[in-house]
Write a sequence for this structure.
């Protein structure tokens, strides 16, 4: 499987495992897990052909570590970013003093007024480093990097979670905690 194919399959997996499993008539369990054999079979019916080994390579090499297997690789799920209701059994964690969020300038004014909202996702996504935030923000244009005073938020009682792939998650970030 070449890099272009891996990227195409990865995007399709993101659609299925994070947003729209009904696209291939697959059911995710309450924790977001899909049976890998069924996933491979149903994707093939939609013209997205890959093997278990290909799937393992995609999971292992995905630059954002978006996906995870269960212990015996018979189930797969997205680590975060769902717009559908799943319980990832995230554990609360104490964040570092500062976290970062990448966006673009057209959203800055709304963020100044309303803070960062989860919108159609289950959580607001934050990163520990500016480089990751830049990558996220640059998907929609020239990135604007916001600094979130996460340590202060945590002291004020806001709950944070750390996903398996190192993305910090919270329900919202009020504007008063954002350095623009």
């Amino acid at each position: 499987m070449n890099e272009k194919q891996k990227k195409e399959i990865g995007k399709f997996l993101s659609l299925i495992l994070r947003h729209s499993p009904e696209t291939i008539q697959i059911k995710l369990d309450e924790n977001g897990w899909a049976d890998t054999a069924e996933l491979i079979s149903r994707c093939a019916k939609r013209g997205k052909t890959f093997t278990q080994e290909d799937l393992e390579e995609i999971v292992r090499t995905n630059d954002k570590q978006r996906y995870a297997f269960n212990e015996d690789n018979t189930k797969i799920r997205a680590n975060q970013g769902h717009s559908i209701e799943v319980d990832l059994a995230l554990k609360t964690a104490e964040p570092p003093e500062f976290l970062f969020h990448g966006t673009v300038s057209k959203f800055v004014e709304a963020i100044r007024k309303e803070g960062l909202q989860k919108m159609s996702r289950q959580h607001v996504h934050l990163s520990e480093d500016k480089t990751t935030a830049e990558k996220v923000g640059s998907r929609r244009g020239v990135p604007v990097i916001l600094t979130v005073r996460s340590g202060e938020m945590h002291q004020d009682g806001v709950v944070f979670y750390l996903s398996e792939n190192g993305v910090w998650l919270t329900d919202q970030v009020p504007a008063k905690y954002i350095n623009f």
Remarks:
- The radius of gyration is 17 Å.
- The CA atoms of residues 64 and 115 lie 25 Å apart.
